[in-house]
Amino acid sequence: MEVVIASSPIDAGISCWDLHSGAEQLRYRSCASTPHGLTCVGQRFLASSQLRDSSSSSGSVLYWSWNKPQVEVKSFPAEPIKPLASNREGTYIIGGGLSGYIYFWEVASGMLLKKWHGHYRAVTCLVLSDDESLLISGAEDGSVRVWSLFMIFDDIRREEAKHLFEHSFDEHSLCVTNIVCGYGGCNAIIVSASEDRTCKVWSLSKGKLLRNIIFPSIIDAIALDPGEHVFYAGSRDGKIYIAALSAESTSSSSYGMHILGSLSDHSKAVTCLAFGMDGILLVSGSEDGMIRIWDTKTHNIVRILKHAKGPVNNVLVFERPLFNPRTSLNSQASLRRHGSLLPPPLDKYANSTDENLDSKAVIGLQSACNRPPDASYLSFHMINSQIKELQQQGSAAAADMEMERLKLDCKKSMQMVQQWKKMYENLHQFCVSELLSGDQAGGCMGNLT
């Protein structure tokens, strides 16, 4: 099921609809999300950063499972988190702080793996490249920076490098409001929007500005056409502008250079945009509380959805996994000790006791049984701890593991016996050959005398 989810900066929960039928799904409670602060983690659960009071020095990150409307897990990071990002597998979550720091957590354990100072002011948006090797961040200081995750986790290279970022684009004069990344990994383009009324197109491989487009109003949302011929820019004047990426556009356009046209129906600012998986349906959210679904081929509105209350500041489109009651019961039985089917809360600080451990995330192979999705990827030290726990419990699984270990030891012992036998046979043959050679030499000497 392809679904649309939407959230609001006020406590209006999270709305969920079927993209193609418009049927409303379960509504999730108690969410007042920040812009770009709503994400789906590995299609397993929803996560959102919360900042109830902009002047507050604290914030939270909340988790919702698909089948329960209430918040199940609450995290309280060291500072308020604004944007959130997650990789496709849901192995890790990245958050941008008000201070300009960027936080990198492992989902399965909640452990804070890395934290670094990314910007001089609050981080406003985070996006991963399509191959997930690069992280692109934007901030209130107007800068757009590109980070290699290989560099971030390579302590030797970090110490040798003059700076952590691969590129720092500083041409925006005001706060960066949104960033999108195209296809091609390190050869992709990125498009950034800012309160300076411009959208800038950058080359990741060349590290330079390719195109600068000036809009009639401030742009808060961008969606990149899958073919990368145009991009859609949601404006504070209620219009969604269509801008050319590579096509030539003359200044004859009534909106300005490179702006091909617009979609116009929102009564207030357009705050967020997202494409459906077919690359044709475009979903827009607005301060008027409405979500509109557009056909980008005909420029017509396909459907209008209404959020519970208040403005909309996040929309996402993705494939929701089908609910399997049997799997849910198995998951509940295996993870009952956690009190939730979801991972533990995110750590507030880095755990110094784990500094020497291998903290790389490991994606495990799925077994044929209905294993809980939360256990499909675990860190190295968590796998070890689970093995020890099973052994201590004396469970059937532990007995099977012990049996496999004994079989492996027996196999190694048999291989060793065969090697010793072969060595004995070789030595015996060598000794016999030497004795025979000695007897023949003695006989020859006797004949000579």
From TrEMBL:
Protein name: Uncharacterized protein
Source species, domain of life: Eukaryota
InterPro entries linked to this entry: WD40/YVTN_repeat-like_dom_sf (IPR015943), WD40_PAC1 (IPR020472), WD40_repeat_CS (IPR019775), WD40_repeat_dom_sf (IPR036322), WD40_rpt (IPR001680), WDR18/Ipi3/RID3 (IPR045227)
Keywords: Repeat, WD repeat
Provenance organism: Liquidambar formosana (Formosan gum)
Per-repeat ranges for WD: 116-149, 190-212, 263-304
Gene Ontology CC entries for this record: nuclear pre-replicative complex; rixosome complex
GO biological process entries: DNA-templated DNA replication; rRNA processing
Listed SUPFAM superfamilies: WD40 repeat-like
Stored Pfam families: WD40
Gene3D superfamilies xref list: YVTN repeat-like/Quinoprotein amine dehydrogenase
